[in-house]
């Protein structure tokens, strides 16, 4: 009896303390205030006004980013039929549109203003795949912070970024927008980008709401064909593809965009398991879900119902906002009247949007992000320009440097050739919708800026980006003249380039893709260099002059022959606005390259999907040699041309063997693994030391290697540094067949090295 009384007392005290804490906790007080405000507002809204908040439109005259349905946005805003807009750029325009909502709609609910600020706003940074190649989390966070500062100064408060789709398929053009193939690195990048955009205070006028996309598995569309079907096991999803979305949610992302593809035969936009069971119930997501452009309406085309029923399905699955389909505004009222959708379901979706506006501080001040003085100061400021150059130099990856051809001397005669050598627009890459190509620095300009007047630069175009008329027509379709064919015949272009090369001490060839050859709706079944450019490199190589190839593209390319022909090879991606200056910094050694690949480069398209963290199989290839009845190809090795994590420097880093603090690890304990890294070359440089682990035996098969950590160190020539990683049992967790996230005792291999292939190894055991 006495025992029961004590138990009751303890429980009572606990309940009292919890309630008292809840009441005094400032976060709860803020949430309570927000709920009170939104309850009151919802109580005053008509059904049409609530559905109006679920409508995201792109007004005419906007920066186009895809298909559009409604052009009469103004009167829709006045009627309270729009919750947010995107593509409206500049303080003046944003102000005018906000005034429509705040002065002319019945309840004066402010709009949110969104945009695709994917790699910088008006100041254009390198594409995300390039930024990821820096492996510099602090820098990537800063790139997001700077982009947010510039975009919010111009009136925007909601960003359709970061894109965190893991992909193992470079045929898919949208790999340009993501961080590559690895879930660990992808998660770390997702999280710092959200922090960069949202900062500590979402209501501050220089931070913006992130929108993580595209939930989920968009990077695994079959055949690398954009918008195509996806299909994979749950264990694969949980282990390799879902972690970056989860990391972004854990970092506090305020919104998420669902993807075009289907998952388990139900399109993501109507997938209740994905958008409610997993996202909200398992992961605890508290923000709102927006569909991708016209994705609600596309559910009809997927074949799961007519417009009214698919709209109801999307809403019930967990979509709050319909991007440009106007399917919600067109059908949901009828569905409520027919009892197919409840008012509670509409309220739930609407509450998500109103909460976002509240958190952004828009109810307090709808013009919070509209400040012409800030726009004048921040947009295209000098400091952002130098950030763009800094980010670009750190994003480039040196893939080859025979005979230490690089860095070049700022002397003599340089032949600068290639269709991307004197080009501005392509430097910006895809998703540069807010950028001005005239502000881009071409490679020719950058090199001229870098060298004294007496250095001779012999520029020659050498080739068109592509001479294939059908391919060029497809690339240019709807988006302008990205590939222009020169009136000078291809043979003449080639011979002019050869002539320039023959007169020079060194040849720098700038080749690759036009910006529109990667990105959305830019899948390629053949990811080699176009034939015109392959011929150019062959012609240049015949001269016997050192051939420095600067490669630009939004994806890994299959370039085994060209990599052979090149004396030196730099992967510059699409470097952004400061392209020319940044390429010159790297070519002449003003910056010693430090980037590392975050996607494997295949030797041949047939190797795709190609990724470092693959399974062993029951018949693994031995030492890269093809043998009958093993898992390999007859015509190409299994190895990539350049592996994940690969990237050279003008200096050389040597690694000692790995020392472990202990050969076994118990639950609740940690061990350390240490290597000494020495800069044995003559230049100072930065190295990214990578840690991989392999679980030798599991209840389910485990990959041959998984990235578990990395550290970036700057070493002076001759300097040595101890690099230590701490490993805890949490680093050894994985999803078992029941989708439980577990550790299993047993033997592990640990690898530390300069890339995923070139490593030193050690072994340890996880004890029960
Ligand atoms: C479609 C794209 O898939 C998405 O990434 C983008 O944010 C929207 N269009 C809006 O431009």
**Residue runs with pLDDT of under 50 for 5 or more positions:** 1-23
Average pLDDT confidence is 95
Q: What molecules are bound to this protein? A: 1-deoxynojirimycin
Structural class: alpha/beta
Strand order of the largest sheet: 9-6-5-4-3-2-1-10
Number of helices: 23
- What helical percentage do the residues reach? 25-40%
Number of strands: 27
**From the alpha-carbon coordinates, what is the Rg to the nearest angstrom?**
27 Å
Largest sheet: 8 strands, parallel
Keywords summarizing the entry:
768 residues; alpha/beta; eight-stranded parallel sheet; six-stranded mixed sheet; 23 helices; 34% helix; disordered N terminus; binds 1-deoxynojirimycin
What does this structure look like?
It is a single chain. The protein has 768 residues and is of the alpha/beta class. It contains 23 helices and 27 strands. The strands form six sheets. The protein has an eight-stranded parallel beta sheet. The chain has a six-stranded mixed beta sheet with strand order 11-16-15-14-12-13, with helices on both faces. Helix 11 (272-282) runs parallel beside helix 13 (307-317) and helix 17 packs across helix 23. The chain is globular, with a radius of gyration of 27 Å. Bound molecules: 1-deoxynojirimycin. 1-deoxynojirimycin is lined by residues 65-66, 116, 160, 213, 292-293, 520.
């Amino acid at each position: 009896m006495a025992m029961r009384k004590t138990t009751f007392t303890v429980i009572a005290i606990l309940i009292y303390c919890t309630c008292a804490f809840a009441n005094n906790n400032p976060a709860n007080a803020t949430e309570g205030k927000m709920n009170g405000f939104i309850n009151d507002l919802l109580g005053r809204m008509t059904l049409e006004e609530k559905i109006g908040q679920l409508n995201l439109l792109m007004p005419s005259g906007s920066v186009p980013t895809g298909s559009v349905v409604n052009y009469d946005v103004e009167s829709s805003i006045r009627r309270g039929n729009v919750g947010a807009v995107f593509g409206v750029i500049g303080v003046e325009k944003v102000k005018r549109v906000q005034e429509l909502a705040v002065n002319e709609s019945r309840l004066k609910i402010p709009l949110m203003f969104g945009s695709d600020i994917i790699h910088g706003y008006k100041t254009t940074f390198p594409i995300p795949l390039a930024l990821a190649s820096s492996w510099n989390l602090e820098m990537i966070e800063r790139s997001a912070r700077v982009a947010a500062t510039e975009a919010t100064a111009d009136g925007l408060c909601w960003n359709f970024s970061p894109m965190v789709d893991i992909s193992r398929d470079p045929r898919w053009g949208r790999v340009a927008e993501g961080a590559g193939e690895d879930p660990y690195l992808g998660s770390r990048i997702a999280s710092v980008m959200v922090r960069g955009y949202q900062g500590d205070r979402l209501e501050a006028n220089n931070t913006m709401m992130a929108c993580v996309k595209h939930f989920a598995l968009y990077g695994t569309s079959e055949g690398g064909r954009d918008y195509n079907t996806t299909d994979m096991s749950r264990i694969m999803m949980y282990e390799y593809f879902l972690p970056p979305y989860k990391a972004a949610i854990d970092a506090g992302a305020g919104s998420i965009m669902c993807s075009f593809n289907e998952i388990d035969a139900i399109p993501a936009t109507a997938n209740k398991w994905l958008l409610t069971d997993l996202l909200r119930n398992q992961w605890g997501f508290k923000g709102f879900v927006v569909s991708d452009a016209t994705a609600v309406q596309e559910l009809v085309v997927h074949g799961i119902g007519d417009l009214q029923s698919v709209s109801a399905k999307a809403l019930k699955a967990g979509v709050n906002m319909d991007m440009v389909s106007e399917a919600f505004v067109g059908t949901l009222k009828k569905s409520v009247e027919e009892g197919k959708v409840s008012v509670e379901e509409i309220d739930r979706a609407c509450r998500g949007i109103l909460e976002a506006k509240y958190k952004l501080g828009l109810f307090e001040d709808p013009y919070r992000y509209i400040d012409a003085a800030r726009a004048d100061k921040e947009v295209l400021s000098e400091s952002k320009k130098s950030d763009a150059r800094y980010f670009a130099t750190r994003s480039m990856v040196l893939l080859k440097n025979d005979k230490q051809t690089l860095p070049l001397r700022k002397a003599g005669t340089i032949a600068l050739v290639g269709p991307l050598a004197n080009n501005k627009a392509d430097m910006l890459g895809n998703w540069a919708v807010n950028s001005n190509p005239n502000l881009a620095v071409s490679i020719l300009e950058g090199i001229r800026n870098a060298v004294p007047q007496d250095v001779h630069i012999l520029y020659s175009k050498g080739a068109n980006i592509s001479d294939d008329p059908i391919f060029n027509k497809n690339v240019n379709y709807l988006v302008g003249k990205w590939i222009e064919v020169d009136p000078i015949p291809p043979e003449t272009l080639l011979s002019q380039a050869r002539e320039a090369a023959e007169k020079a001490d060194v040849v720098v060839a700038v080749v690759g893709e036009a910006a529109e050859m990667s990105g959305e709706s830019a899948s390629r079944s053949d990811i080699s260099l176009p034939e015109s450019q392959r011929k150019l490199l062959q012609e240049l190589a015949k001269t016997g002059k050192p051939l420095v190839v600067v490669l630009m593209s939004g994806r890994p390319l299959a370039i085994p022959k060209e990599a052979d022909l090149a004396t030196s090879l730099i992967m510059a991606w699409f470097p952004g606005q400061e392209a020319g200056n940044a390429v010159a910094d790297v070519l002449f050694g003003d910056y010693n390259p430090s980037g590392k690949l975050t996607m494997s480069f295949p030797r041949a398209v047939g190797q795709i999907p190609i990724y470092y963290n693959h399974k062993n199989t029951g018949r693994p290839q031995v030492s890269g040699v093809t043998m009958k009845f093993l898992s390999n190809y007859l015509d190409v090795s299994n190895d990539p041309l350049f592996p994940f994590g690969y990237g050279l420097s003008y200096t050389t880093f040597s690694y000692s063997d790995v020392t472990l603090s202990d050969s076994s690890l118990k639950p609740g304990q940690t061990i350390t693994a240490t290597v000494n890294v020495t800069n044995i070359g003559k230049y100072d440089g930065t190295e990214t030391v990578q840690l991989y682990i392999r679980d030798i035996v599991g209840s389910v098969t485990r990959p041959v290697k998984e990235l578990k950590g990395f550290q970036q160190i700057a070493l002076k020539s001759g300097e040595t540094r101890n690099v230590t990683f701490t490993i805890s049992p949490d680093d050894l967790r994985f999803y078992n067949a029941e989708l439980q996230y577990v550790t299993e005792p047993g033997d592990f291999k640990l690898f530390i090295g300069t890339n995923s292939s070139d490593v030193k190894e050690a072994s340890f055991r996880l004890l029960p």
